[in-house]
User: Fold this.
Amino acid sequence: MQHANGKNGTINGYKNEPLNISIVGGGLVGSLAALHMGKRGHNVTVYEYREDIRTAELVIGRSINLALSVRGRTALREVGLEDKMLKHGIPMYGRMIHNIDGTRNIIPYDRHSNQAIYSVGRKYLNEILLTATEKYPNINLKFNKKMSGGKVEKGEVHFVDTTTKEEETTNADLIIGCDGAFSSVRREFLKKNAFNYQQIYIEHGYLELCIPPGKDGEFLMPANYLHIWPRGKFMMIALPNQDRTWTVTLFMPFENFDSIKSSDELLKFFETFFPDSIPLIGEERLVKDFFKIPPQYLMAVKCRPYHVSSKCVLIGDAGHAVVPFYGQGMNAGFEDCSILTRLFNKHGSDLEKILNEYSETRWEDAHAVCDLAMYNYIEMRDLVNKKSFLFRKAVDDFLHWMMPTVWVPLYGSVSFSCMPYKKCIDNRAWQDKVLNRIITVSGYAVSALGLLGVYQIYNNYRMFEESSN
Assistant:
């Protein structure tokens, strides 16, 4: 049995005592939040609307594959689960681009190191997190509990058991809302004054397909890449799975989905835009999977503040749902858990200070990752094949190789560091400004990357750092 390590006493002059914490939502972020809080010695109860996912079948078509990067790995490491997930995950060292003519080209994430993001199964990860909570006697899991209302500003939440219809009310020191993009906890925030909320549905939807293993039971494509079929206004991606299948996701405008009404129209569409994928998926399976369910919607949520009084806080998709194109939804939610833990370390059990600081310091980064995800869709479906993008990628790679701590490309700062998301955007803007200045002075000559350019970049970076501080 693993015991919690929280202790009574003080931290930085603040009381540090066990709290009664109710977590609404037992998905990825909720179960990880339970581990972070349980490890500190708090008494945690997790209320999950669904049945126990460990005994349930995966719902096909409602889950985009997950890409685990540094922010998520850090949060898992803090509860001792990083190594276990990396052993399960499949490393992807770059993007493999599929062109219409059948050719492929590789765009590494980092040409000078083995930086990788990891393809992980959503269900497997959730199962690992839920099972890990059972090692803590102070964490209690309750399934089939639907939130029906409450007074979150007082720490009060009402639930109905979806199987027995019995009602239950919890009175907690802290409620953590981790119940996703359609959060019931957040709905209570909408009844309060001074709560800003924005919900955006994009005009593109997604549909999941599948590439099976080959006859030899192995992958039909090189496994250690994120495969992308960029086609301007739409795209298709594929991520590898442990069972040697590929989760293939088609993203495109709903008007394009609506225009495909028969198997003949579908096959003609794929022959035109994704011809090399047909023998991989198989015609029969392609038709079956495409028409099985309608395309799903994609939405983003921005809101602030993330807390009400000193009793309730929103984290993960409940506070900042993002479209999936940067692979940061889960990673940002896991990072929320790390941030809350650091604030508990700083302020003990003073919830007023913890929640105020969380809202004040997190919202800009949360809004920034929403914007980054929107931008990356354009990059993935369109820009990756443009010469201007490839040229900039080469320049960024070269400068990062020369000055790895000074020049960090945007993708690297987002996926391979814990640099605040807002600073990632500011850093990219600074890089754009520096390169534009050099091009203005030196034109497009190679000398722009010479010693004078490097010296100017370094000095500008120091000025940027000083102004940021």
